[in-house]
Design goal:
Helix content is 27%, strand content 33%. The protein has 191 residues and is of the alpha+beta class. The chain has two domains: 3-66; 78-190, Sandwich (Jelly Rolls). The strands form two sheets. Strands 3, 4, 6, 7, 8 and 10 form a six-stranded antiparallel sheet that branches. The longest helix is centred in the first third of the chain and has 26 residues, at 3-28. 19% of the residues are buried.
Length: 191
């Protein structure tokens, strides 16, 4: 049974019991009610809303103790890096950079994983991306273009990594000649 259902049943029960108590007191006709301990408790400064709130908090504590509700914890981020191999290629269209093959499975890092990649383009010109060789597609969000003329670092946004133990490699292209990628690595953030 969900915690909302339990709270709903508890609230209805409290309201029904309080209604029967009011009915019973009215049936007595009001004589000697001031001396009745139940009436005295009912006429104290606590309103019905305060009592319901108190009962709800008690139920929440009991549910936590039983394990029905888990206490909220602050989300902690854990950052990890996986070093990849770099290399060079001379191609004006997308081509595999030899020696950059790797396998990766995001599920090995937990349920909520964000993956990006970073590195250096040594000659400062060209484009690089990660190619999913298992599923025969460029990884969404992995393509980076650099046009600075000097050694430049690059950082991708979060990439769309498909489930499973997939094989990947780095591709590059540069219409001006060679493109060299150095120190590439995956950045893995788990929550």
């Amino acid at each position: 049974m969900s915690s909302k259902t339990v709270l709903g049943v508890l609230l209805v029960s409290v309201l029904m019991l309080s209604g029967w108590e009011v009915y019973r007191l009215v049936e007595r006709g009001g004589s000697g009610l001031e001396e009745d301990p139940e009436v005295l408790a009912a006429t104290t400064t606590r309103t019905l809303e305060e009592r319901v709130a108190s009962l709800e908090s008690r139920v929440l504590v009991l549910e936590r103790n039983v394990g029905l509700v888990k206490p909220k914890t602050a989300a902690t981020k854990k950052e990890q890096y996986v070093q990849l191999s770099g290399g060079s290629v001379t191609a004006s269209e997308w081509a595999k950079i030899d020696g950059t093959e790797f396998s990766f499975d995001a599920l090995l890092y937990g349920g909520s994983v964000e993956v990006s990649w970073q590195g250096w383009v040594d000659n400062g010109y060209g484009s690089v991306r990660i190619y999913d060789d298992t599923n025969h597609r460029a990884v969404d969000g992995s393509e980076i273009s650099v046009n600075s003329g000097v050694k430049s670092s690059f950082y991708s946004k979060s990439m769309s990594i498909w489930r499973g133990q997939n094989q990947y490699f780095i591709q590059g292209k540069n219409p001006l000649g060679v493109i060299t990628v150095s120190q590439p690595r995956l950045r893995i953030v788990t929550r």
